[in-house]
Design a protein that fits this description.
The complex is a heterodimer of chains A (140) and B (517).
Chain A (H helix, E strand, L loop, with lengths): L4 H23 L8 H19 L1 H7 L2 H24 L21 H25 L6
Helix pairs in contact in A: 1-2, 1-5, 2-3, 2-5, 4-5
Chain B lengths: L2 H19 L4 H13 L1 H7 L6 E4 L10 E4 L1 H24 L12 H20 L3 H20 L6 H30 L4 H6 L5 H18 L7 H8 L2 H11 L1 H13 L6 H21 L3 H21 L3 H29 L13 H14 L6 H10 L5 H24 L14 H20 L5 H19 L15 H27 L1
Antiparallel strand pairs in B: 1-2
Helix pairs in contact in B: 1-2, 1-3, 1-5, 2-4, 2-5, 4-5, 4-11, 4-15, 4-19, 5-6, 6-7, 6-11, 7-9, 7-10, 7-21, 9-12, 9-21, 10-11, 10-14, 11-15, 12-15, 13-14, 13-18, 14-15, 15-16, 15-17, 15-19, 16-18, 16-19, 17-19, 18-20
The chains are: A mainly alpha (140), B mainly alpha (517).
Amino acid sequence: MRMSSIVRNSSRLVSPFLVAYGAYLIIHGHISPGGGFQGGVILSVSVILLITSHGYKAVRKAFSVRLVKIVESMSALLIIMISLIGLIFGTYFFNFLRGGEPGTLFSGGTVVLLNILIGLEIGAAFTLLFYVLLRWTESD
Amino acid sequence: MIPLIIVLPLLFAFCGFVVSAFESHENHIKSIFLMGIFSPWPIFILNMNDYPVETVLGGWSRIAGIELGLGMLNHYFILGSLIVFSLVGVYSLSYFEDDGQKDGPIPGKRMFPLILLLYSGILGSFLTRDLFNFYIYMEIASISSIILVACSNAEGAKRASYRYLMLFFLSSFLFIFSIGIIYVKMGTLNFELIEQNLVMSREIKAAIVIAFVAFITKAGVFPLYFWLPSAHSKADTPVSALLSGVTVKVPIFGMLLFLEYTSIEFLTVPLMIVAFSSILFGIGMALLQSNVKKLLAYHTVSQMGYVLLGVATLNVFAAAHYAFAHTLFKAGLFLAVGVLISKQGTKDLDDLTSGNNTVLMFSLIVLTLAIGGVSPLIGAFGKHEILLGLSGMSFYLFYMGSIGTLVSFIKLDYKLFDLSVKHLGKFIPSVQEITAFIMALLTVLFGIYHYPKFNLLDLALMGIAVALFLLFKHIDLFEKNMPHYFSRDVKGLGSEINLYTSIFVLVNLTVLIYVLY
């Protein structure tokens, strides 16, 4: 079903703001409510909104299934890598970037990096799930 | 260093996912898979001499962080899963060969990373000393095994996987509810801290009961075994070996954690009843099966009863040793039978034959004696330790179980060994047969290492078993077929799961009322 141009244009307008909001939640995850998971879900919602308005086929051209798969597994791999670096400094998952004034943006150390990766992982995973479920109803 | 035991397989699993997203050659994934499978071995061996090893992730204090520990409690669980995964890993390289056929097994490209994920989930749940962390690892292991079952091309695999999924989540929800109760009452989920501050209130007792019923469901013990026979028999052979050998030990390890760090004396009577009914029921059902994988799956139900008996007699090491023994011989049996199934394309006991395959025949005989608990093979040691805690009536029930297991496996051997067949030509053992053979050899070696005695009683049991086998054969018991109670469509599946859920709730309520009032 083809959505009306009002719906398509407005969702095209809203989507970038959703991405910005998701990124904000992810980056400020360690000092405010939110975090990697919540921000990641909003990131994937921005893609899912485009799917509902523009159809699966059009969105798949921009975000191909393979790209989503690679982002999903790469970010999981990088999470493990970061936690492995901690092993050099003593223990596994050691926060080797400690420092900064508590409560400010630059105080989380590796937590911020992990939050960003978790956000990417969750966003890609939810998008992938939506793709997989849409495969059975290929029509737009 | 011990977190690496979990992390390295996980790292290689995600490497596998990344590599399989690119159109890469199958050999790349195979080598990543093998590296992942063998990577925990050096760390395990390096830490073996200075038990107990304990570490808290991130360098935090025990109150805030997640504790991992390696000691005598989990030594046998980890050793068993390392052995089984290594051998099954080698076995599955040739099993998941992409032969270009549409109805052949799913190519390894998709299976190998999932098997590694299962591996790290299982190792994680054996290493952790934190209740919530244990739950997370158990979920990783169970979700990947549910997907692995669904990947099989056997008829009814999707249905089996769905049943598995529903019962696993049902028990997981109640398990996390019980974790919540424990957290509210104790303020911590670290087992060492729980042990130090333990006050056995009614709430804690209720939480432990709910957790144990969830564990019993996940271990596939009798009143809540429904998902096990279909899931273990419909999966691909290497996956069946992993599920039956290792995955069902994860909830048993959870029980042992509770047994070690809290007090479960109030649960001994219900656990004893459940364990004995599971032993006898599993054997009874196995005797009626003609599908060889289903027969082995029902024996898992009965063998888990033995492991539970170790828990019920509050003997941590009996349970751990018997679980280790079961890990080795059940995985070996699935691998040995799987060779025949993939060669002859049938799972029916009447059609399968071992032909002149001497290596496989030898491995099958050794493995069946091991599962029957004949000394000096590995099963005897665990059974000997469990027997120490039994007395009176339960003593005889235990031997009845041993005889029943032997009868069922004499039937298996009798049907498989057809010595008249000579047309199969010269026999050259393949990698798959050699892995099954190594598994059989390990049951002998570990058995002699742990319990180097020969028990004359075993000979008497064997004699009774042979006599009973001949009697059952005479009255055609083995030819009886089980009726199907549910229709094969989606509606039948729905009512099946409704029934299972109500039995699950009923068991939960019964044990809760017994313990609290």
